[in-house]
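Translate structure to sequence.
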């Protein structure tokens, strides 16, 4: 399909009940599961579906599929802003002791992130002298985890040779992350030129109306993360403790604590104030559950 069609229809199937052609805003947090087994399968990421809006949301899913289709990527993740998209992407690739190599022409917020915030977290950002691939390659070493550039520099207006930059990154076994905010996929598709990850501030040209804040990360699906060994654990290693285990453990602890506190308070209040109670000795909820509370009722 042409980009004009993708921009309007990608990622959304017309609602069978209302026949609405515009995606609805699903302003809810939780979602219904078919049964306990279905819920467990969702939390274990065994089947696709909605779990919790912090993780995914049907409205966001349309946006993610639509932008991924426009950019020629395999999937996308929508976040709160363009700066959040850049931060998410790079913190997944680099951690303490690593470095990122970038062109010097950057959006002001990105420069602040690179020059001050990431270094405070132990990630060095190396600024090349120019936006030429050979100048960036001079700064690459064994601790480099990504090459970064903007398709069209904001506000410099420089145009980066994405093909050359992608070839250099590939030669060094590194992903090329490109901010395509200014160009948008209407003018340039970095993934087709060899980029591996594309980020956007959707607030600007992709949104176009100045009424919404957002950002997005698009995975090109063209970088072999496993071929780099343990270089990119954020992309290849299984997280410690499955989401289901973590959530169930938290729920068990929180619910048990809440039930104990609420039941104990409620029981004590009722028995203390009930006119039929002559005396009350509080031993504790756990012994109460075993029938060890001493309660005498008047005849």
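Result:
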């Amino acid at each position: 399909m042409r980009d004009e069609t993708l921009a309007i229809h990608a990622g959304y199937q017309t609602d069978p009940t209302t026949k609405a052609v515009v995606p609805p805003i699903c302003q809810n947090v939780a979602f219904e599961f078919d049964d306990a087994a279905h819920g467990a399968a969702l939390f274990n990421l065994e089947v696709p579906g909605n779990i919790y809006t912090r993780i995914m949301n049907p409205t966001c899913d349309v946006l993610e599929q639509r932008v991924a289709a426009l950019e020629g990527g395999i999937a996308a993740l929508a976040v709160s802003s363009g700066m959040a998209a850049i931060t998410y992407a790079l913190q997944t690739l680099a951690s303490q002791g690593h470095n990122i190599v970038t062109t010097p022409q950057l959006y002001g917020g990105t420069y602040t992130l690179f020059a001050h915030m990431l270094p405070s977290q132990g990630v060095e950002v190396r600024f090349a002298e120019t936006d030429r691939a050979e100048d960036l390659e001079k700064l690459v070493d064994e601790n480099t985890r990504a090459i970064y550039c903007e398709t069209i520099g904001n506000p410099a207006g420089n145009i980066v040779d994405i093909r050359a930059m992608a070839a250099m990154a590939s030669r060094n076994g590194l992903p090329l992350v490109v901010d395509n905010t200014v160009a948008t996929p209407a003018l340039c598709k970095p993934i087709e030129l060899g980029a591996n990850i594309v980020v956007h501030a959707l607030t600007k040209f992709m949104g176009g109306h100045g009424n919404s804040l957002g950002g997005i990360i698009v995975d090109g699906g063209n970088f072999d993360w496993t071929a780099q060994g343990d270089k990119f654990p954020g992309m290849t290693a299984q997280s410690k403790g499955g989401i289901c285990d973590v959530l169930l453990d938290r729920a068990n602890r929180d619910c048990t604590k809440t039930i104990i506190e609420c039941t104990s308070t409620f029981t004590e209040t009722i028995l203390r104030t009930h006119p039929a109670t002559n005396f009350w000795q509080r031993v504790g909820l756990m012994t109460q559950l075993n029938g060890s509370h001493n309660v005498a009722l008047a005849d």
